[in-house]
Design brief:
It is a single chain. Helix content is 0%, strand content 65%. It is mainly beta.
Length: 106
């Protein structure tokens, strides 16, 4: 059997000020590869953000300037057998937005 790869929007949402689930791998036969994360702060003051994959921080309390977008290209795999198979995140202000893209492989 050949694997099927599907590009996906994993999350596109305003950040919450407490840690919130942004994406969950849909089932135990899917592996997800996170490929790009954009973080946008629309406020006139700086903010911070945190993003975790399977509870492990990949960006921890990172400063993002006022009216700024940060783009991060990466290749982080969330295996089908990972626990808890999630991307979570938060920010110091709800004016921060997360745009996360990736590929689901079944």
């Amino acid at each position: 059997l050949m694997a099927t790869s599907t590009p996906k929007v994993l999350a596109r949402t305003a950040a919450a000020t407490s840690n919130t689930t942004l994406y969950t791998v849909p089932n135990s036969s899917t592996t997800t590869v996170v490929t790009n994360i954009s973080v946008c702060n629309t406020a006139s003051s700086s903010a911070t953000f945190t993003i975790n994959i399977d509870t492990i921080p990949i960006y921890s309390t990172v400063l993002i300037g006022a009216n700024t977008t940060g783009n991060f290209d990466l290749r982080q795999v969330i295996p089908a057998n990972a626990t808890p198979k999630t991307i979570t995140g938060s920010a110091s202000a709800t004016t921060v937005y997360f745009h996360i893209s990736g590929i689901e492989v079944v």
